[in-house]
Specification:
There is one protein chain. This protein has 294 residues and is of the alpha+beta class. It contains nine helices and nine strands. The strands form two sheets. Strands 6-5-4-9-8-7 form a six-stranded antiparallel sheet. It has a three-stranded antiparallel sheet with strand order 1-2-3, sandwiched between helices. It is elongated.
Length: 294
């Protein structure tokens, strides 16, 4: 018979400054990994420590995804190259595990960003449906964000007064349908206000912000707590629509978030402008053909 599997508690004996920066300012030495960093639970980190402890073999992980404590109290998805190396004493007995790592999050995201952006431009040039192209653009943000963002693009209607659904691949469908056709104005949630003022509107808490007083009952039941909206503008600053980033907890945008916003709104303006110019040309061609046929 086999006895019960041995369990290791994996207590920190030392942690350098870089590791403290990665996991946040907290007491580590003398505490178990599970107790000191509960966010690691269920992510495979402790399981790898168990594997190295039981086999005595090192483990190398490339671009390992880990959710770690963020600066705003939530968690952020990081990508790390990690090496788990057994430490042996003079007698050859394993006494510890040395973990060394390198944060490759930016490298991973930049590569993903370039590939995805090229894909969006290919779709636009290939005359894919506008919703498909805009949806792919939104997925750039959703897959490279560290904070589980939900993206949405609304298009300003021809009347210049209402916002229509453009693309929202992961927003709850019922919510997208509820805001389709919403009127813009000086106090019309994040998107309606951004379209009205032609300026970004960052609402960090939908429940308490006065801009959402008449709309929060639509958003809150779907677990939407923050919404940052930026107008999509032509070079002449004509509003084409809005790009919104929703979160399921109250939070402020980071510098990286704002960089993603710039990428999306500039690309979206090109895609939407191109689509509308082509639609206008098709309309002119149809009218010309009708006139010549009559």
């Amino acid at each position: 018979m086999h006895g019960p599997a041995r369990r290791w508690d994996h207590r920190f004996t030392v942690a350098n400054h870089a590791f403290h920066e990665l996991v946040g300012d907290r007491d580590l030495v003398g505490r178990t990994v599970a107790n000191a960093i509960p966010e690691f639970a269920g992510q495979g980190f402790v399981e790898i420590l168990d594997q190295v402890a039981s086999t005595g073999q090192p483990y190398v992980g490339h671009v390992m995804p880990l959710r770690l404590p963020g600066t705003d109290g939530g968690t952020e998805k990081m990508f790390l190259d990690l090496v788990f190396q057994p430490v042996l004493d003079a007698a050859g007995e394993q006494t510890a595990i040395f973990v060394a790592g390198h944060n490759v999050t930016d490298d991973k995201r930049n590569a993903t960003l370039r590939t995805a952006h090229n894909r969006v431009l290919e779709l636009a040039i290939g005359d894919s449906p506008l919703e498909t192209t805009l949806g792919e653009l939104i997925r750039i943000v959703e897959t490279t964000s560290r904070t589980d963002v939900l993206g949405s693009i609304l298009l300003l209607d021809a009347d210049g007064k209402h916002l229509r659904h453009g693309a929202a691949p992961t927003l709850p469908k019922a919510y997208s349908e509820a805001i389709d056709g919403a009127e813009i104005g000086p106090c019309a949630g994040s998107c309606g206000t951004a379209a009205f003022t032609a300026e970004p509107v960052f609402v960090s808490d939908i429940e308490t912000d006065p801009l959402w007083a008449d709309f929060k009952q639509v958003a809150l039941p779907h677990g939407l707590r923050a919404c940052w909206s930026t107008p999509i503008l032509t070079r002449g600053r004509k509003v084409l629509g809005t790009f919104a980033m929703y979160h399921r907890e109250p939070r402020e945008p980071t510098i990286r978030d704002l960089m993603l916003v710039d990428l999306v709104t500039q690309t979206a303006a090109l895609v939407i402008d191109r689509e509308r110019a082509q639609a206008a040309l098709r309309s002119i061609a149809t009218m010309t053909h009708s006139s010549s046929s009559s």
